[in-house]
Design goal:
By secondary structure, the chain is mainly beta. It folds into two domains: 98 residues, Macroglobulin (MG2) domain (Immunoglobulin-like), CATH 2.60.40.1930; 167 residues, Sandwich (Jelly Rolls). Strands 5, 6, 7, 10, 11, 13, 14, 15, 16, 17 and 18 form an eleven-stranded antiparallel sheet that branches. Strands 1-24-21-20 form a four-stranded antiparallel sheet, with no helix packed on it. A hairpin with a 2-residue loop joins strand 3 and strand 4. It is globular and about 60 Å long.
Length: 285
């Protein structure tokens, strides 16, 4: 079982900085369309139509709808990406804390709606975030994709993408999402909080989720503690130890490799002193 941890944000913390962000995202409300695609976005429309303009909106006159198309032996999801034809992202100059938007989703066969964010400095990735949900949403619901920065770099370009992913295989024809009104959450930056350390224990949701076979788990340790993180199966039996060591205060990322496990639902539990937190994740092969 491969596993590893590395300390991140250990000498600096993040602080919220006020500011408007809607204008940073191209055509954030999908009001402008040309030749069947939203302006400022690329799609995989061609012989088949994956992405269409929708009048079922959260606000304004139009939104973007994506679905799944059958190619005979397999199904292929739509691809809605905020890039030009060369694949270049749109310019940004801040460390945003989260990506927000509103969506509706009709899942078939256990499919998931997936929103992803990648920020780069030059061609090097410096931040990422994602939102995954498989529940039916007949009315608009807000999604929030938290953005993780493993270093102190400020990105200069970003890519946002939306798609439908299948549970352990190809997505299903009939799964449809509609997305509208995108925005960034508050920007973040390095500041001079005392010692630059977390103020409380915190265990974040792993990413990606579902995963195969590795996933990342971020957690905060506000004071030196013996940290124990284990993975449990659906019956509560311990199947892996991810972390078991004394760690100084800081923010950490554990990389869990589930190569030795079978597909299914598992739980990861963090114990540090009197703090205990358990979250669920899904391994799909």
């Amino acid at each position: 079982m491969a596993l590893g941890t590395r300390r991140i944000f250990s000498t600096a913390a993040l602080v919220v900085i006020a500011g408007s962000s809607l204008a940073q995202i191209p055509n954030a409300s999908f009001e402008n369309w040309a030749n069947g695609d939203p302006v400022g976005w690329s799609t995989n429309n061609g012989i088949y139509t994956f992405v269409t303009q929708s009048s079922s909106t959260h606000s304004g006159a139009s939104a973007a709808q994506g679905g799944v198309v059958n190619f005979g032996a397999f199904n292929l999801s739509c691809s809605l990406i905020s890039t030009d034809v060369s694949g270049a992202g749109f310019p940004i100059s801040q460390r945003y804390g989260s990506l927000h938007g509103f969506y509706k989703f009709t899942p078939v066969g256990g499919d998931y709606f997936l929103a992803s964010y990648l920020a780069e400095k030059g061609s090097a990735g410096v931040a990422a975030g994602s939102y995954l949900d498989g529940s039916a949403q007949s009315v608009y619901r807000e999604f929030v994709a938290s953005i993780l920065y493993p270093g102190a770099d400020v990105p200069d370009n970003a890519v946002i993408s939306f798609s439908i992913t299948g549970a352990g295989g190809f997505p299903h024809v009939g799964s449809i999402f509609v997305v509208d009104d995108l925005s960034f959450g508050p920007a973040t930056g390095v500041n001079d909080l005392p010692n630059g350390l977390p103020k409380a224990f915190r265990l974040e949701q792993n990413y990606p989720n579902p995963f195969n076979p590795t996933t990342n788990i971020v957690y905060d340790v506000p004071e030196q503690s013996h940290v124990n993180m284990t993975v449990l199966d659906i019956l509560g039996r311990e199947v892996a130890v991810v972390v078991d060591q004394l760690q100084p205060a800081g923010r950490y990322k554990a990389v869990f490799d589930a190569s030795a496990l079978t597909s299914g639902t598992y739980f990861y539990r963090l114990t540090a002193g009197s703090y205990v937190q358990t979250r669920k994740f899904l391994l799909l092969r």
